[in-house]
Amino acid sequence: MNILIYGIGGIGGYFGGKLALTDHHITFIARGKQLKAIQENGLKVKSILGDFQCTPDLVTDDLKQVPCPDLVIMGVKSWQLTSAAKQIAPILGENSLVLPLQNGVDNPTKLMEYIDQKQVLSGFCNLISYIESPGVVCHFAFKPTLTFAELDNTNSTRIQKIDAVFHQADIKSIIPKDIHRELWKKFLFITTISAIGGLCRVPIGELRESSYINSLMRSTAHEILSVAKAKQVDLRAEDIEKVFQTISDLDPMSTASTQRDLMAGKPSELETFNGYIVKQAKMHGICVPVNEMLYQCLLPMEKKSRSEYSK
C-alpha cells in the first residue's frame, strides 16, 4: 500500500514512523529543518514504549514527487486542514482515501471542501507527543491508539484492509460502532479543559483546586452536550462524569496542547473547540455563555498569533 503521511509533527511522526518500519511504501511530507533532518538521518522516535529509528521510502516537501497514494494520513493541525486538503487533492486517485487524525469533530467536513466525500474517512488518536528537535519526535505519555471508521460506520472491506496495515505496524487501532459518538467524547474532554487552561495559564492541578473554575468547566461540558444533542450525536450525561473522573486522575502538572499553544503565542485550536461550539450553538438557537466567554476572551490573542504566523 502507498501511504502518505502529510505532516511529520507529533502525530504524523509517531504513526508515520511506525508505518515506515513495515514493507509498505511510506512517504513523508515535511517542511524546513524537519525535512532536512529526516532526509539526512531518518526519523528518530523516542517513546516510553521503546525508541526506534526509521527511514521512509520518500521524504519531500514537493507533492509532485509523491506517487498516487492509497491512503493519506493527515498529521497537520486542524486549522491547517482545509489548506492541506486543497494541496493533496490533485494527487489523489479514484480509490485514494484520506484519514484525518486531528482534534475536533468537523475535520471530514473541512476535507470535503476539496475532496470527494466517498474518499474521506473519520478518525482521531490518543497520543501525547511532540517534535523534540529536527528529526526527533518524543512520545512521552499514554499507549497510543488510533480510532477510525467510515463516515456511515460501515465496516467496509477498505476499512478492514487499513486496519490490517495498522496491525502490521504494531499500531493499536480501533474501529468503533459509532465514530461520531467517540469523536465527541474526546472533543468533550479537550474542549472542557483547553480554553479555560489557556485563560488561567496554570496546570490542571491548580484548575481543579478551585470550586469556581470546576463549576465553569462543568458548565462548559453541559453546553457542549446541549449542542451535541441538537446535532443528534449520541453524547450522554454520563460522558460528562467520565470526563471529570479523567480530569481528577490527571497528573496535576498536565496542560492541554491548545493551552500550551495559547501560552506560547502560537496559533491554536481555539476555533476547533470552543469556537466551533459557539458557532454551532448559534445555528441551533442554543445559549452557551461560558463557551462564548472563553472563546471571546481568547480570540484577540488567537488572531494576533495567526497574523504573525502568516507573515
From TrEMBL:
Signal peptide positions (record): none
Family designation: Belongs to the ketopantoate reductase family.
Keywords: NADP, Oxidoreductase, Pantothenate biosynthesis
Keyword presence, Glycoprotein: no
Protein name according to UniProt: 2-dehydropantoate 2-reductase
Pathway, per record: Cofactor biosynthesis; (R)-pantothenate biosynthesis; (R)-pantoate from 3-methyl-2-oxobutanoate: step 2/2
EC number: 1.1.1.169
Keyword Flavoprotein attributed: no
NCBIfam families linked to this entry: apbA_panE (TIGR00745)
Gene Ontology MF annotations: 2-dehydropantoate 2-reductase activity
A Pfam family annotated for this UniProt entry: ApbA_C
Entry's Gene Ontology cellular component terms: cytoplasm
One GO-annotated biological process of the protein: pantothenate biosynthetic process
Catalytic activity annotation: (R)-pantoate + NADP(+) = 2-dehydropantoate + NADPH + H(+)
Source species: Galbibacter marinus
Organism domain of life: Bacteria
Limits of the Ketopantoate reductase N-terminal domain: 3-152
Residues annotated as domain Ketopantoate reductase C-terminal: 178-299
Function: Catalyzes the NADPH-dependent reduction of ketopantoate into pantoic acid.
Enzyme class: oxidoreductase
